[in-house]
Amino acid sequence: MLILAREEIVAALLGLMVELQGLQPRFLGRSESVDDAIRLERPAIVLIDCDHPDCTDALVEAIRRADATPILFSPFRLQSEVRAVAARHGIRSFTLRTDPHTFGKTLKS
Q: What's the CATH number where 43 sits?
């Protein structure tokens, strides 16, 4: 599972939550592009911070073309804002603070 978070501490927190679900988190290297990571790693799920600089309509489509599931999240925005953006793309979303059970259900839906 690829995690694209704007802040490293948020990425680390999500990585721990992903591990609690029995999955392996993957983060971008400092000089690695999102497109390269998706193409080379072929993640099943990509968690995208809606405030990440690479969070675009084109990225969501690239994730889908790679047969991966994009899931939008935000550690700072209101749940209603994130849901509205996710609904526009027909994808799942969540906001932090979330509990491990709800997070697991979001990943497996």
A: 3.40.50.2300
